[in-house]
């Protein structure tokens, strides 16, 4: 995000999962407090089941 042109990033809301996936990271296990447990979804986001996009609650 910090290396992107300002016009591309200014005023945008970034979601960790989207930024990391865009950077090629697919395994989020290292970000878990307990890697044996699934990560919790963000409480303020709804995932659109049809296309995988997010909407703010």
UniProtKB/TrEMBL annotation:
This is Short chain dehydrogenase/reductase.
């Amino acid at each position: 995000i910090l290396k992107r042109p300002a016009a591309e990033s200014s005023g945008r809301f970034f979601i960790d999962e989207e930024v990391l996936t865009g950077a090629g990271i697919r395994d989020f296990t290292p970000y878990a407090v307990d890697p044996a447990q699934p990560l919790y979804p963000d409480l303020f986001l709804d995932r659109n089941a049809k296309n995988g996009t997010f909407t703010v609650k």
